Amino acid sequence: MHATISAQTLLTRELLARRRPGYSLEAPFYLSESILAADMEHIFGKHWIFVAVEPQIPEAGDYITVDFGNNSILIVRDDDMQVKAFHNVCRHRGSRLCASQRGSVGNIVCPYHQWTYDLSGKLLHAKHMGDDFDPSTSGLKAVHVRSLGGLIFICLAENPPEDFEHMAQEMTPYIAPHRLADCKVAAQVDIIEDCNWKLTMENNRECYHCVSNHPELTISLYEYGFGYKPDAQNAAGLQRFKDVTAANHARWESMGLPSAEIDTLDDRVTGFRTQRLPIDRAGQSQTMNTEVASKKLLADFVDPALGGLSFWTQPNSWHHFMSDHIVSFSVLPISAGKTLVRTTWCVHKDAVEGVDYTVDNLTAVWNATNAQDRRLVEESQIGVANGAYEPGPYSPFTEGLVEKFCNWYVGRMRELTR
User: Fold this and answer.
1) Omega within 30 of 0 (cis) for the link into 58
2) TM segments (predicted)?
């Protein structure tokens, strides 16, 4: 007997089938709670999701919790200093184990009936359960977890995409020199955007809007790195940017810092893109004066002008690695019209606040940019809900990465909902 296909699944398939390449998505992709449920099942439930950085759990027993959809995930550093991930659910009667976003424990103790687990998820104590109870069958449910150069990814699927290994092999040489494991978290800011998570990601994947909306961010970005129509008016600026990038790539590569673009955003299950790009003016960091935010450089760097290594992953993150600090962004859906954007700034673990850096200076550019982007995506959500909305065309010169995000999303949803 064939399983009954719901009307919503049929509608989702129809919307996916008629998606017009080079155009934004139809309104239900941003508005429908049913499609958000499908996103949670097929995108956030079956792919590698970026959730944290290792400096958030520096010591054995340190933990964080990550919530998205109906899922709560507990990420902990065990006694062997390995990163573990579990569903944040007691195996007794389902109580949430850890309510705080972060903390430190010796063992994991359920607050309800004190079932106690070690940091490997093994059930240690469960009182009054009788002689026939086998504690070995009631350990915490593990979640697949991988650290890529200190960036923590999880996958809820029973069989996660195997091509994470390809990304790790290609990206480790880029990320490893920055030694994220030797960093500490200097600041973390959560904001809630009143929009669909896909609008947040689409906004990130282009800088068509940057000159008009991000005066703090564009101080450090070469204008012609945003993407421009290659006409006579822009030819000189575009060529200068290419020349500056090529010269810096040669210099950085000679220092053992891979810099060339890798782009697999829409042709792999675990899609990603990376490139090290020059920073304008002083050329050191994404700050208001483009000089380093922390005088204590990362790793053993001595040259502060190492550009910005950008790393984008599907479906929910982007990162910038510089000589003095690292900033990471995680996007997690709350509902069809609400999205959590979590920004984390890391500096060298020996950097001293108030001496080597100030949090205000470190975070100024991206706090301003995040606030501006929040306004933009919330206006987009309002506009998409208007009955006059219809998918509009992407610029082939400035919105190519938006198209790749949508291609990836539509392709994965088609594959997983057929």
Assistant:
1) no
2) none
Q: Which CATH number fits domain 50-147: 3.90.1170.40, 2.60.120.280, 2.102.10.10, 2.60.40.10?
A: 2.102.10.10
Q: Kindly report the pTM of this predicted structure.
A: 0.97
Burial 180-216 (b: 16+ CB within 10 A, else e): bebbebbbbeeeebebbbbbbbbbbbbbbebeebbeb
Look at residue 195 in the predicted model and tell me its pLDDT.
98
User: Which CATH code for domain 179-417?
Assistant: 3.90.380.10
Q: For residue 151, which of 124, 178, 130, 128 has the smallest C-alpha distance?
A: 178
pLDDT grade for 228, boundaries at 50, 70 and 90: confident
pLDDT range class, residue 4, cuts 50, 70, 90: low
- pLDDT per position as a tens digit, 343-371: 999 999 999 999 999 999 999 999 999 99
Q: Could you tell me the residue ranges of all domains in the chain?
A: 50-147, 179-417
